[in-house]
Design goal:
This protein is mostly helical. The chain has 7 helices and 2 strands, in the order αββαααααα. Strands 1-2 form a two-stranded antiparallel sheet. α4 packs antiparallel against α7. The longest helix is centred in the C-terminal third of the chain and has 86 residues.
């Protein structure tokens, strides 16, 4: 076989793999464009993750992808907002129930927020790498890296599930990961929102302290000015008294001399 033919076959294999065709022995199968693979591609498109490992290659497919993204991305944002609100309502409901049962007033909200944070960390960041290690052969660090890069919608594409042709993946695998992405993004959005509110509240607290300090300084300056003004008034009155004293005595003694 000539090197030119071998190079042409290699390019054909690479192009087929990029197009979603998996080579299995002497046969081919649409391993990445089956239903679960297409569903995973749809989720990665509307969540704006965009790994870049799979993309439409025809004109009709690209036009459909554009229209699908135009309607899918706003609807996905609405869906993520609703999922986040449901999570928040669940946390608040559990906090109210604990407050009624144990009569905790100040510790309930903090306790439930801590439990929600720990539960979310376990479900969306700490436990999924174990599944990826089993199904993908990644290390725990690589699985954790993929989890965060995916849920934060960074999506570099250096790690993508279901891409190893030497491994057999169950049918539920990509569907479960797609649901994990949706709920994980909603949870991470709540965490980011909580961090933003915390930063804003700390900024407002610093500004309030600065304003109080400025008001205190202005008040001190005003007191100093008022005391200085009172002292000047007293000084002026003393001067007037000293000035009027000789004049009054002179006007009193003048008639006596006339007599």
């Amino acid at each position: 076989m000539s090197p030119r033919i071998s190079s042409g076959k290699s390019q054909g294999i690479i192009q087929a793999y990029k197009s979603g065709i998996t080579l299995q022995g002497n046969t081919t199968s649409l391993g990445r464009w089956d239903y679960s693979g297409s569903f995973f591609f749809s989720i990665s498109a509307i969540t704006t993750i965009g790994y870049g490992n799979l993309s439409p290659s025809t004109v009709v497919g690209r036009i459909f992808c554009i229209v699908f993204a135009l309607f899918g991305i706003p609807l996905n944002l609405v869906l993520l907002n609703e999922i986040g609100q449901l999570m928040l309502l669940g946390v608040q409901h559990c906090a109210c129930r604990l407050e009624e049962v144990f009569h905790w007033q100040n510790k309930t909200s903090f306790l439930m927020k801590t439990c929600a944070l720990v539960t979310g960390l376990l479900l969306f960041l700490l436990l999924p790498p174990l599944l990826f290690s089993d199904k993908e052969g990644w290390s725990y660090e690589e699985g954790f890296y993929y989890s965060f890069i995916t849920l934060s919608t960074i999506g570099f594409g250096d790690y993508v599930i279901g891409m190893n042709p030497d491994r057999t993946y169950p049918g539920w695998y990509k569907n479960v990961i797609s649901l994990w992405i949706l709920f994980g993004m909603a949870w991470l959005a709540l965490v980011i929102k909580f961090c933003i509110n915390l930063l804003e509240s700390s900024s407002d607290f610093c500004q309030c302290n600065k304003k109080n300090k400025e008001m205190a300084e202005d008040l001190m300056d005003g007191n100093k000015n008022s005391m200085t003004g009172l002292h000047s008034v007293e000084t002026c009155s003393d001067k007037d008294t000293k000035t009027k004293g000789p004049v009054e005595s002179h006007s009193y003694t003048a008639p006596t001399e006339a007599l």
